[in-house]
Amino acid sequence: MPKILEKRLIRHPDVYYYKVEAPLISKKAKPGQFVIIRLNEKGERIPLSLADINPDEGTISLIVMSVGKTTTEMSTLNAGDEIRDFCGPLGQPTHIEKYGRVILVGGGFGAAPLYPIARELKAAGNEVTVIMGARSKDLLIYENEMRSLSDKVLITTDDGSKGIKGVVTAALRQELEQSGADMVMAVGPAIMMKFVCGTTVPFGVKTFVSLNSIMIDGTGMCGGCRVSIGGKTRFACIDGPEFNGQEVDWDILINRQKTYLSEEKESFETWKKRHAFAVCE
């Protein structure tokens, strides 16, 4: 079974970095793809984006935020522990070409899967600007990594504790007005990606998003990850996860994300009681 080689807390108290032994997956995986994991025989399957790929080491890296039962259970694992199932790479990789000037917009820990994408876009000869947003400076991740390979990095925080006070769309609009762009990509909460796409429409800039829809098997069989793109049903697991953001029916996506909230809460509370687990606030 795949072994965790490295684990570290990158944002207190709930965001962890994992480097996992995955020689076969690392040789096939490309930026923009994801894996589905199952921690144990009775565990649920959850999709996780790839934060880095290292075929020479035979490893992939994951950034996991403890928000529910399985991600919190994963936070109890350490280097040397094994993961029961590790399936991937899944989904379509990011299309990499020389666009010209590209702007990558990361919301919260959505910055992590943008890192390998930024690296490949830069290697293809693009001018890469990254806009990273969070509620406060303490919630930012991957800033140094992005600065190491980008031409320009802009930080926005809701409370003004670092960078520009405000949301990512304000910084994006300013960049588009001043310098334009040939492509925009956004990864983060659905509501953020929706407003990013609304911001780029008047500028006529192609805009891609990575959709975080409900997902179960990851192979297109269950239909749980279906999304509406340009009025047509698509499956995020095999047709995506990246789509033209200006064609996404965001209301359908956001409503479907709420489908199992009560069941997820019940599962998490039951697990915490069973394991006498206290979540740090």
Describe the structure.
The chain has two domains: 4-90, Beta Barrel (Elongation Factor Tu (Ef-tu), domain 3), CATH 2.40.30; 101-210, Rossmann fold. It contains eight helices and 16 strands. The protein has helices at residues 23-28, 69-74, 111-123, 143-147, 168-179, 190-200, 250-257, 261-275; strands at residues 4-11, 15-21, 34-38, 46-49, 52-54, 59-65, 85-90, 101-107, 127-134, 152-157, 164-165, 183-187, 207-210, 226-229, 232-235, 242-244.
CATH classification class of the largest domain:
Alpha Beta
Spatial strand arrangement across the major sheet = 11-10-9-8-12-13-16
CATH topology of the largest domain: Rossmann fold
- Overall geometry: globular
Helix- and strand-based class? alpha/beta
Number of helices: 8
Given as residue ranges, the uncertain stretches (5+ residues, pLDDT < 50) are none
Overall pLDDT? 93
SSE series: EEHEEEEHEEHEHEEHEHEEEEHH
Major β-sheet annotation: 7 strands, mixed
Report the radius of gyration as a whole number of Å: 18 Å
Q: How far apart lie the N and C ends?
A: 33 Å
Number of strands: 16
CATH architecture annotation name of the largest domain: 3-Layer(aba) Sandwich
Question: What is the helical fraction, as a range of percent?
Answer: 25-40%
**How many structural domains does the protein architecture include?**
2
Q: What is the CATH superfamily of the largest domain?
A: Nucleotide-binding domain of ferredoxin-NADP reductase (FNR) module
Residue fraction in strands: 25-35%
